[in-house]
Amino acid sequence: MTVTIAPATPQDVAQLRQLYFDVYGHGYPVALGSDPAEMRRLIDDPHTHWLTARPEHTERTDRTARHEGAGRLAGSVAVQTDPGGRIGKLVGLAVHPEQRGGGLAGRLTAAVCADAFATGALDSIYATVRMVTPGPQQVFARNGFQALGLMPNAVEVAGCESLALFARHADGVLARRDGVGPVPGALVPLLEAARRSTGVEYGRPHAPDAPATDAPAADAPAPPAGQSAPVTAPMELITAPGFVRRRFLELFPDPGERFFPLHLPNAVLTPPDGAFEAYADLDRAAASCSLIAVHPSPAAVTGALEPLMAAVTRAGADYVETLLPLADTAGLNAFLAAGFIPSAVYPAMRRIGDRFHDYVVLSRTSRQIDFRATAVSDRLQPYLQAYLTAWTSTYLPLPEVAP
């Protein structure tokens, strides 16, 4: 069956909701496919590219057309963009079960990426891809996306699922990356996995020279030298989106200080003494949380991430992630010391001047990780091995051997 791919319109909202229900049932945790008001806002948003695929029914009887679902959408996809960050996220790729197997997912992906990149306002587009089947990974790989890592237990859809991170860059972007200097030792396996999977070079990443120290226990991370002892008081969680965003903009007036594309905080976590404020995008429907920024700096949470994790878990999030520059050794060490695992590396994610800088996704989950039902493609295998290596060294320290 032939289809017509065209921009979504407000009149499509009801059929779009039906499409996402047919694909996901009641388990779709994204407002783009379930909240009519948000869907209309995104369709009208000049920074969102939303395409639909509709079957063409020509020279058919009315009875045949009704049988084949005349008027029903066959597929949908969108790219939401962050103009300031020059980055887009591909979301909501869905093909009706009756239309699968004909390459429609690939056509939608190619079309929406072409539209988004044609504006000249984007340096890259990323997607978080479900891993319940290999099909979605193949669709993105065939459309020029590179696998950048995986995030175990990242979302609640039809049960707890892991996601893979894929990204596609505009021409010439990767050639203008800044070099990679010393990194925390825990990141070396991830960068080597990225080199093997994507061919993107990271030089010879190595840990900075420092005296060897024993790995901290996972349930009681020791602070780095010179930092305060772990915080044990309960963390205060404020979930007042309007207040949180006003406060966030007051503390981070410079857009360059709040780089976490396509995320806005709706919650803030702080210890009773107010030593720091951690701003978060808390998504209870997806059982996930993104730590967007910490004032005065990411390293300020050193020793306080255990009560912070406990507060987030009580709020319904089993998965927490943060995004840090690869060059921010102090911030990376703070999260690594609290049991966060290097999960993905995003090369050339951020443009500063005429150069591009790499970022790292670190994640932590309070659920047991089970990869048995996960489809891990060859492109993701190096990341799986790197994640398992980092998780083992963090949570299963080798026992000391007596001489």
Question: Overview of this structure, please?
Answer:
This protein is an alpha+beta fold and 403 residues long. The chain has helices at 13-24, 36-44, 62-67, 104-118, 135-142, 188-198, 241-251, 305-314, 329-336, 381-395, and strands at 3-7, 48-55, 75-82, 87-95, 124-130, 146-157, 159-169, 236-238, 267-270, 277-283, 288-295, 319-325, 341-352, 355-365. The strands form 2 sheets. Strands 1-2-3-4-5-7-6 form a 7-stranded mixed beta sheet, sandwiched between helices. Strand 11, helix 8 (305-314) and strand 12 (319-325) form a beta-alpha-beta unit. Helix 6 (188-198) packs antiparallel against helix 10 (381-395). The radius of gyration is 22 Å and the shape is globular. The model is unreliable at 58-69 and 210-228 (pLDDT under 50).
Any chance you could write out the topology, listing elements then pairs?
Elements: E1 3-7, H1 13-24, H2 36-44, E2 48-55, H3 62-67, E3 75-82, E4 87-95, H4 104-118, E5 124-130, H5 135-142, E6 146-157, E7 159-169, H6 188-198, E8 236-238, H7 241-251, E9 267-270, E10 277-283, E11 288-295, H8 305-314, E12 319-325, H9 329-336, E13 341-352, E14 355-365, H10 381-395
Parallel strand pairs: 4-5, 11-12
Antiparallel strand pairs: 1-2, 2-3, 3-4, 5-7, 6-7, 8-9, 9-10, 10-11, 12-14, 13-14
Helix pairs in contact: 6-10
